[in-house]
Amino acid sequence: MLGLGVGGLAALLAGCASQSGPVRRLRCATGPQGGPYHAFGRALAEAVTAGDHRLEIVPVGTSASVDNLRRLDRRSVELALAMADVAEDAVHGRAEFSRPIPVRALARVYVNYTHFVVPAHGPVRTVRALAGRPVATGADGSGVQVLAGRLLRVAGLTGDRAVRAQRLGLAASVRALRTGTVDALIWSGGVPTPALSELARVVPLRFLPLDGFVGPLRERYGPVYSAVTLPAGAYGLGEPVGTIGVGNYLLARADVPEPAVRELLQVVFARWRDLLRDVTAGARLEPRFAISTGGVPLHPGAVDYYRSAYG
Length: 311
Hints:
The structure is a single chain. By secondary structure, the protein is of the alpha/beta class. It folds into two domains: 23-110 and 247-310, Periplasmic binding protein-like II (D-Maltodextrin-Binding Protein, domain 2); 113-246, Periplasmic binding protein-like II (D-Maltodextrin-Binding Protein, domain 2), CATH 3.40.190.10. It is 39% helix and 22% strand. The chain has twelve helices and ten strands. Strands 1, 2, 3, 4, 5, 6, 7, 8, 9 and 10 form a ten-stranded mixed sheet that branches. The protein is globular and about 60 Å long. InterPro entries: TRAP_TAXI (IPR011852).
């Protein structure tokens, strides 16, 4: 060190400082405590902390998708998780959003499975049989509520056939179904969702088939919806049940610097097993899947990351 002289020592210290650099703090809007978005955000923060990164991820509890996009717009967070249908609404300034929000996608991280749940020993065997009945349709500000409203509309449960919608989050929905306050609950999340697995151990459940509504949903709202299957064995199911799938996006404000996005995606792809462990079983995160963000444009930093990492 002494042999370097003043100029050499200054250059060395400058090099060390530029390599370490300041830590960039990114707040990530997730979802309610105990939900899959919250689990993903917490795991992402832990993965970043465990590595030698110039990032800090701060999970922020929210009501989920709609609330998250609004927080991005208000600039109170830099990152967010949201369902694909809500994210596309935000980009185009429609439905819950009065104007377009300049949001960019980093990755499609996993697929939600729609759960339309009723007691197995009850009288309800189809979605349309719920006309006039109380149904838990998701919390205010959640993507579940958006999807539930669209599903009920294409099922013809409007006007004098409308369900009596109860705007409840997952925990409250589970309690309401268990006590008989509602006749059904709608949930969109990974498989298995722990709260529903716990409920299935004490209350026999029936999962209503929804695959027949995928076509009408796509015709009316676009290709963000797909046909997926709840597998046999999940929640004690004796056979698979067709349902509706919708992707979940990791999003950022358009002004988040490209180097921060590239570094974050390095963590996401290196640690995806840890990120998805408590969110959805059996999922994989692959580049060809991750870049499928529909009408939500990729962040330039994400484009650069995928090109440099995968060609």
